Amino acid sequence: MHGGCLCGDVRYEATGDAVFLGNCHCRDCQRTSGGAFTPAIFMPEDSVKISGEAKYYESIADSSKKVSRGFCPKCGSQLFAKSERYLGLIGLRAGTLDDPSLFNPSVDIFTSSAAHWDFMNPDLPKFQREPG
User: First and final CA of the chain: distance in angstroms?
Assistant: First the structure.
């Protein structure tokens, strides 16, 4: 999988299999994406090669763990996420893929925070918070 930011200054290449593909409906993901949810692909961090330099913003998630979200300092596109809870994994934003058709979510999480105007795929499993 290849992808990058809007201006092209930050690019990535991911090889191997994803660990998790899903839509996160938590309030933090709504705020950082500007949408109803964040479509995310979590990969082993060592399987993702990043070119260019992303800046990271750190916050505390509902789990009380730190989450760092990576974005392009030039155009502001959010590309990555890293969490203390999932050490060794990096989240890629599905909308930044060169071929977004590669993203096939398997689950909706934090549906308890979903916006009332959000239409979720009824065929995907739903979790009120994060699966255990």
Answer: 28
Dihedrals phi, psi of 100, to nearest 5 degrees: -65, -10
- Strand, helix or coil at 65? coil
Beta-carbon contacts of residue 5 (< 8 Å; ≥ 6 apart): 11, 52, 71, 72, 74, 75, 77, 79, 96
- CA 76 from centroid of its chain's CA atoms: 15
| Whole-number pLDDT of residue 52 | 97
Strand partners, 82: 68
Check pLDDT > 80 for residue 131: no
- Which residues fall within 8 angstroms of residue 29, CB to CB, at 6 or more apart? 37, 38, 110
| Mean per-residue pLDDT of the chain | 93
Whole-angstrom Cα distance, residue 72 to residue 54?
Answer: 5
pTM: 0.90
- The answer to whether residues 105 and 24 touch, using CB atoms and an 8 Å cutoff, is no
The total of other beta-carbon atoms located within 10 Å of residue 21's CB is 18
